[in-house]
Amino acid sequence: xxxxxxxxxxxxxxxxxxxxxxxxxxxxxxxxxxxxxxxxxxxxxxxxxxxxxxxxxxxxxxxxxxxxxxxxxxxxxxxxxxxxxxxxxxxxxxxxxxxxxxxxxxxxxxxxxxxxxxxxxxxxxxxxxxxxx
Length: 133
Prior knowledge:
The structure is a single chain. This protein is an alpha+beta fold. It has one domain (5-118): Glutaredoxin, CATH 3.40.30. The chain is built from 5 helices and 6 strands; from the N terminus they run βαβαββαααββ. It has helices spanning 19-31, 56-61, 76-85, 89-95, 100-118, and strands at residues 10-14, 37-41, 64-67, 72-74, 122-123, 126-127. The protein has a 4-stranded mixed sheet, with helices on one face. Helix 3 (76-85) runs antiparallel to helix 4. It is globular, with a radius of gyration of 15 Å. The two termini are 25 Å apart.
């Protein structure tokens, strides 16, 4: 039986070719004792971004998630929703404090823009995700 977003409060779309991203997802999976988050690897050969109304480039640009009602969220809000789903609500509360919110948003924006370079996926000055099968 395949899992769908209807059975989970949150579906997180992550880049399975990104070493930092997969470490973060593995951490959250360990905490997800109630299986409240569906993790979808957008780098998986069988993944089709069009099936969720997105483009691969759009999904690669920023982490995104879909809530059970079909709403898409992105950036730091994905981490907040994901952490809340696995029981880290006190941490989420701290991330909403004035100043902290802006710092996290700016930090994530910088990371997202430089993620391919930071994770060693640039060749000869060109940063691109791996070729899709």
